[in-house]
Amino acid sequence: MKISNRRSRRAATAVALGAVLALTATACGDDGSGAGGDKGADGSGKGKIVFWDNNGGVRTEAWKEIIADFEKANPEIKVEYVGIASTEYQSKVDTALQGGGLPDVGGVGAAMLAGFAAQGALEPLDERLAESSLDGKLNKDMVESLKAAGGGDDKLYSIPTSANNGVLYYRTDLFEKAGLEEPTTWERFFTAADKLTNKGKNEFGYTIRGGAGSIAQALDAMYGQSGITSFWDSSGEKTTVNDPKNVAALEKYAKLYKKVTPAADLNNDFTKMVAQWDSGTIGMLNHNLGSYQDHVKALGVDKFRGIPQPTGPGGKRVQVSNPVDGLGLFKSSKNKDAAWKFIEFATSKAENSKFNESAGQVPSNTDAAKDAWISKAEPTKLAADALSDGSTTIVQLPYYLPDWNTISKADNEPNFQKVLLGKMSAKEFLDTLAEQLNAAQEEWDQQKG
Fold it and tell me: Pairing between strand 159-163 and 362-363?
């Protein structure tokens, strides 16, 4: 995998707080927690540590197994597990940063990394990693993705656990019946979307994401078709999102709505989109590795495949970055040595393999990525191969910008719906998005001096 990076950046100023949510006493961890400005301590390497799972409920069972394994191997350390829904996680951490109650260890993926690092909440982990059993055992591209997302000081604030790569799922039974070739190129994708649609029979070639989370999927389709390999131009100050090639790509993609997709797609988030695909007769779905097991339960393994995103110009595959997930050590921890032991254990070969087999994601531990289950979970194997065989270029999204989440969600998801409805042109949408991104980048450059 090639990662398109722009010049290095230093940490930003504090980001705005999310909504304030109350924290329970059990979530606080009396012996290992604090506020964002607390420098913490290495501690004895024993006692209790508190772990916040950033995808509680979905990954709770897997983490509890890993914690049980860890406590068996380290009887002098007890881990208190706190599962927090992914939609609430950032606001929980932001609240604790101001009022105290941070955990020792928490899930810290690329999308929220810059904000936490900018507030001085996370411990740099480069030295600990270099001196640990993990040194040389983690996927280099995942490590670099987290470094790039951390604010530009070239420090590692989160140890990668997995990559949840983008996948094109397609119904093999429907393709075979229609005599269609596998949608490995964008040209084949559009041909199949059209041919598999029969509105009178409620059959559609594709389901498009028009609700929450729509922007990242639209960007993926744009850059995949255009073949543009960097989010910023050569100056590093202007985004390429409104490049004429991207405008043309988005126009073509948006025209799929209602022509070859259900009308309900306008408001679909990933949950509704996945459920609709699993229960209906829709030819193709863009999502990530996380929904693979849902498809297996609904369709079995014989009616669908999950393959890397289609290739574009010159047979090259270009994708936007899917956030790498990881584990961060909070600076306020009073027991950093014990917390690091847990991070090191959780990303070791056996435990990282166990976690990612359950999640259906690409392991960060390179030894775990060789385990037998990878070959059995075909989408994961193909995604892992695409990330390592040089066939894929990743366009790094600017997670480091404090305004990124607001710009890519609240500010522009409603506008993308207008594009789908024909009430806003693709050019107007992308020019507006570009203007906001360029302003955010300029502000960032001013802040970092």
Answer: antiparallel
pLDDT surpasses 70 at 4: no
Distances, alpha carbon 361 to alpha carbons 60, 85, 276, 372, 393, in Å: 16, 19, 22, 14, 19
Distance CA 435, CA 438 (A): 5
- Reduced to 3 states (helix: H, G, I; strand: E, B; else coil), residue 325 is strand
- Count CB atoms within 10 A of the CB of residue 411: 15
The CATH architecture assigned to 166-322+395-448 reads 3-Layer(aba) Sandwich (3.40)
pLDDT band at 36 (very low <50, low <70, confident <90, very high): low
**Residues sharing a CB contact under 8 Å with residue 130, sequence separation 6 or more, in sequence order:** none
Supply φ then ψ for residue 248, to 5 degrees. Answer: -65, -40
Cβ–Cβ < 8 Å for 320, 394 = yes
What values do phi and psi take at 70, rounded to 5? -65, -45
Backbone angles phi, psi at 63, to 5 degrees: -70, -35
Locate the domains of the chain by residue range.
47-163+324-381, 166-322+395-448
Residue 86, phi then psi, degrees to nearest 5: -60, -30
DSSP for residue 322: P
Which of 226, 177, 227, 186 lies closest to 206, judged by CA? 186
Matching fold, domains 47-163+324-381 and 166-322+395-448:
yes
Distance CA 81, CA 104 (A): 11
pLDDT, position 35? 59
The dihedrals phi and psi of 51, each to the nearest 5 degrees, come to -120, 125
CA distance 9 to 30: 35
Q: How many CA atoms lie within 13 A of 79 on its CB side?
A: 31
Q: What are the CA-CA distances from residue 302 to residues 130, 208, 277, 378, 446 (Å)?
A: 44, 23, 15, 12, 54
| Backbone φ, ψ for residue 300 (5° rounding) | 80, 175
- Residue pair 405/86 in contact by the 8 Å Cβ criterion: no
pLDDT tens digits for range 140-173: 889 988 998 887 788 999 999 998 888 999 999 9
Residue 424: exposure state from Cβ atoms within 10 A (0-12, 13-18, ≥19):
middle
Rounded-to-10 torsion of CA 142, 397, 63, 157? 60
- Beta carbons within 8 Å of 370's beta carbon, 6+ residues apart: none
- The amino acid at residue 365 is N
CA distance 328 to 105: 6
Q: Which amino acid is at 318?
A: V
List the end-to-end C-alpha distance of the chain, in Å, as a whole number: 32
Q: What does the DSSP 8-state code read for residue 66?
A: H
Specify the CATH superfamily of domain 47-163+324-381: Periplasmic binding protein-like II (3.40.190.10)
